[in-house]
Amino acid sequence: MRIVLLGAPGAGKGTAAKMLSDTLNVPHLSAGDLLRENVAGGTDLGIQAKTFMDAGGLVPDDLVIGMMRERLARDDCQTGFILDGFPRTLDQAEALSTVTGIDVVLNIVVPEDVIVKRLSGRRVCPSCGAVFNVDNNPPQTNGVCDSCGGDLIQRDDDQPETIAQRFATYREKTEPLIAFYTRDDLVREIDSSGSVEQTRENTRAALGL
Ligand code: AMP
After folding, report:
1. CB 190 less than 6 A from any atom of ligand 1
2. What is the pLDDT of residues 66-101, one digit of tens each?
3. Nearest one of 102, 27, 35 to 67, comparing CA atoms
4. Taking 90 as the threshold, does the pLDDT of residue 157 lie above it?
5. How far is the CA of 163 from the centre of ligand 1 (A)?
6. N or C terminus of the chain with fewer C-beta within 10 Å?
7. Does some domain include residue 172?
8. Domain containing 179: what range?
9. Under a CB-based contact definition with an 8 Å cutoff, are residues 52 and 59 in contact?
10. Ligand 1 neighbourhood includes 52 CB (under 6 angstroms)
């Protein structure tokens, strides 16, 4: 199954994507994770992307489209994929449509105040990618990853000023994609305002899994 996840930053796309990837046995392609890997690896793409990411803006379309085109061409994507954080602009959506069809678009919906609280409390493990939340999903030991024992950090772009900018970017550039995909009747809405488990359940229900 070829799935696109839409939703504001912090809506829970990553959580839904991971569950769907495990259930459907198709890769989870997170544009943000791929960009962060490039930043950490000091690649040309990473060096160019970092300034935009730190400011809460979008990395230019040509860079992201090139990166995702390459990823989607790999063998593991041929039976399906979960796209998380791509496309994020109409130009990206148009480019994607020249590469592959899409079976369903899940729009993950949460009130803005809930999201701001979630993002401010989010802590991530740079070593293994595990995600925690100081309010509703804390690690057993403060600041330490339950999975691998690594030090947890707050993402640079989860600082309050950057969160506000990421929201503004989402409203301006990404929200129009809901109308874009609604024209082809591909969009299903997922309520993600409850617990992580409720969101997983709502996601399964939306796909009849
Ligand atoms: P995310 O992990 O999805 O919240 O993405 C983190 C940051 O990476 C975003 O705030 C953008 O700066 C950048 N980014 C991720 N996906 C895209 C995309 N499809 N187009 C442009 N920039 C992106």
Report:
1. no
2. 999 999 999 999 999 999 999 999 999 999 999 999
3. 35
4. no
5. 12
6. C
7. yes
8. 2-111+163-207
9. yes
10. yes
**72 belongs to a structural domain:** yes
| CATH at 38 | 3.40.50.300
Alpha-carbon distances of 137 from 130, 190, 196, 202, rounded to whole Å = 11, 21, 9, 19
Phi, psi at 9, each rounded to 5° = -55, 135
Best mutation site among 18, 35, 48 for ligand 1 pocket (most ligand atoms within 8 Å of CB) = 35
Kindly tell me if the per-residue pLDDT of 156 is higher than 90.
no
Residue 99 lies in a domain: yes
Q: Which amino acid is at 82?
A: I
CA atoms of 82 and 14, how far apart (whole Å)? 10
Ligand 1 atom with the shortest distance to the CA of 35: 8
Query: Rounded to an integer, what distance in angstroms lies between the CA atom of residue 92 and that of residue 168?
Result: 18
Is ligand 1 within 6 A of the CB of residue 35? yes
Dist. CA 61 → ligand 1 center (Å): 11
pLDDT at residue number 116: 86
User: pLDDT tens across 24-73, in order?
Assistant: 999 999 999 999 999 999 999 999 999 999 888 899 999 999 999 999 99
Active site residue 155: yes
Q: How many domains does the chain have?
A: 1
Task: Tell me the two tokens of residue 170.
Answer: 């989402």
Is the CB–ligand 1 distance for residue 32 below 6 Å?
yes
- With cut-offs at 50, 70 and 90, classify the pLDDT of residue 15: confident
At 162, the pLDDT band (50, 70, 90 cuts) reads: confident
Within a domain: 158: no
